[in-house]
Write a sequence for this structure.
């Protein structure tokens, strides 16, 4: 139908104006048909088609701009685009070659109203005319605006802008990569800002073109390459991708899908910094953080040195305070231990034990005296009877018995006294073990150790404690059990045999004795030996 | 503890942990003092990291095999104002 309509249109209007060139076409195009056929008014299909083609080309020598709605849109695997433009009453076939189609920013699709610009030509083989589209623009909006909207919608559906994909920025970055133009104002701004705030970072500049053909591919490749080589570079904490301000066309690379995909795939957090505050690109939407300007990007990337130093100082102070509090508490505890028995008065325990021994001693004496007394009374009572009935043998036997009894008594007394002595020695031993001295020494060692690692004020305190410990030690030494003799006790021995005198019963009148006191010994003589106390 | 080179962030985090441990009192006095010394070493480490006064700037360049090399970066003159 199209063909016939076109044919009519061509036959009745433009043909007459084209005569001069027409003949040439006829001649060149129809060598076999001969002039006879032409003369008879009969045309071959080729001749007619050629005339139509010529007529159309003459009628529309320049590009036409056609408004219509896209239908039957098809992008062939070769890259060429085929479509039909239609309005309410007519349709027009259109084709866009790959070389042109590749430049399209937006995605044409059925139902989209467009302005198609190009030339009308006849495709001779099928006898159809077509619009060869050079440029396709969406109607009502700019192509770039539409492209932006289309890509935003697409990526939105794929979850590219989802907050859960946003990676947090490091608080204290060490190494930062800047993907931007090496000569742009953006780079200068970023470098200056980082240097002013936090110059201890290592900055790596990845130079790329940020506008024009191929810019998007370079930016995307840079992001991928840095990710792939992050380890080798010693770890990248954050990347800034961006450029300074410009027109929508200038910023376009940051609206391209390849950049969006590279940013989304990045394992390194990315701050986008494209243009000024008002410019929002697809890259901004996909990036982990969008900075309004390159300077703002640098401020997001690094902290302020003074604040970091403050933080460090407060942490340092916190540790110092905590340990000081702890050391003071430790000092208080040492004082507490010092106040506790037996450290406070090491002698108290010793004295208590000695008192006990003294008590036992005198009780033992009394009880023994009573027993001797009783025994003596029995003997006194028995003696006259024995004497009366006393044959020599009896006497002798009683004497033996008495001797035995005497011996047994002596032995019992001595054993008991020995027992008490052992007890006293044992108490001394135990005192040694609970060992005020040992404990004091342990504490002193601890204090010395702590003191070594503490600042002067604390060290002084420790020294004080140490001195107090030493004086306690000295006190303890002074009252040691080895000084019993010094306290007035003495040991008396028979001069002959050096046997210790434990009872007057062991003595004879004028017997020579040696008495040991704390600082030496002296000799004496036993006189007026009495057992009054015991045998009364 | 291994003496791997800590990042500033790691060192600071460790310092915080030390402060907490000492404050909480779950460790003894002697250990507290050990940890304190450790903490002061960390503070020094942090200061060393921060004290690099001059910013290091390098340029990245892709080699034929896809890896990157770092070269000196010449800073452009700052004539332009945004």
């Amino acid at each position: 139908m199209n063909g016939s309509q076109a044919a009519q249109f061509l036959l009745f209007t433009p043909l007459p104006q084209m005569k001069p060139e027409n003949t040439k076409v006829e001649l060149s195009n129809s060598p076999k048909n001969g002039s006879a056929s032409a003369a008879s008014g009969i045309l071959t299909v080729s001749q007619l088609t050629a005339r139509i083609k010529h007529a159309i080309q003459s009628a529309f020598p320049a590009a036409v701009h056609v408004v219509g709605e896209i239908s039957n849109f098809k992008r062939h695997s070769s890259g060429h685009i085929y479509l039909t433009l239609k309005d309410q009453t007519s349709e027009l076939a259109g084709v866009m070659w790959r070389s042109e189609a590749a430049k399209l920013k937006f995605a044409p699709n059925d139902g989209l109203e467009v302005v198609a610009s190009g030339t009308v030509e006849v495709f001779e083989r099928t006898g159809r005319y077509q619009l060869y589209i050079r440029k396709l623009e969406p109607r009502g909006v700019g192509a770039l605006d539409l492209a932006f909207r289309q890509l935003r919608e697409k990526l939105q559906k794929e979850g590219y802008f989802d907050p859960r994909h946003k990676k947090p920025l490091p608080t204290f970055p060490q190494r930062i990569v800047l993907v931007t133009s090496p000569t742009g104002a953006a780079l200068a701004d970023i470098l200056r800002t980082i240097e002013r705030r936090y110059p201890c970072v290592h900055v790596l500049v990845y130079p790329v073109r940020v506008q024009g053909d191929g810019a998007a591919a370079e930016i995307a490749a840079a992001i991928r390459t840095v990710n792939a080589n992050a380890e080798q570079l010693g770890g990248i904490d954050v990347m800034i991708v961006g450029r300074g301000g410009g027109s929508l066309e200038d910023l376009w690379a940051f609206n391209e899908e390849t950049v969006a995909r590279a940013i989304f795939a990045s394992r390194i957090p990315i701050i986008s910094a494209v243009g000024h505050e008002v410019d929002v690109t697809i890259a901004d939407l996909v990036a982990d953080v969008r900075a309004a300007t390159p300077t703002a990007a640098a401020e997001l990337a690094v902290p302020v040195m003074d604040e970091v130093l403050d933080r460090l100082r407060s942490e340092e102070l916190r540790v110092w305070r905590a340990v000081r509090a702890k050391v003071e508490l430790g000092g208080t505890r040492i004082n507490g231990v010092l106040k506790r028995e037996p450290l406070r008065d090491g002698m108290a325990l010793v004295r208590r034990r000695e008192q006990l021994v003294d008590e036992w001693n005198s009780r033992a004496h009394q009880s023994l005296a009573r027993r001797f007394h009783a025994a003596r009374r029995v003997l006194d009572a028995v003696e006259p009877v024995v004497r009366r009935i006393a044959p020599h043998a009896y006497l002798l036997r009683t004497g033996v018995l008495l001797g035995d009894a005497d011996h047994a008594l002596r032995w019992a007394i001595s054993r008991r006294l020995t027992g008490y002595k052992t007890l006293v020695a044992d108490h001394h031993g135990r005192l040694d073990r609970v060992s005020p001295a040992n404990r004091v020494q342990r504490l002193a060692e601890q204090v010395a150790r702590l003191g070594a690692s503490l600042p002067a004020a604390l060290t002084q305190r420790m020294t004080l404690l140490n001195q107090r410990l030493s004086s306690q030690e000295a006190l303890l030494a002074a009252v040691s059990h080895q000084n019993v003799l010094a306290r007035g006790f003495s040991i008396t021995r028979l001069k002959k045999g050096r046997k210790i005198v434990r009872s007057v019963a062991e003595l004879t009148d004028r017997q020579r004795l040696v008495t040991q006191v704390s600082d030496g010994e002296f000799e004496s003589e036993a006189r007026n030996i009495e057992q009054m106390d015991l045998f009364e | 503890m291994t003496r791997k080179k800590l990042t500033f962030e790691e060192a600071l985090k460790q310092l915080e942990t030390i402060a907490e441990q000492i404050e909480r009192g779950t460790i003894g006095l002697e250990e507290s003092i050990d940890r304190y010394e450790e903490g002061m070493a960390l503070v020094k480490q942090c200061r060393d990291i921060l004290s690099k006064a001059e910013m290091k700037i390098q340029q990245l360049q892709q080699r034929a095999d896809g890896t990157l090399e770092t070269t000196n970066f010449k800073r452009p003159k700052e004539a332009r104002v945004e």
Remarks:
- The CA atoms of residues 51 and 329 of chain A lie 112 Å apart.
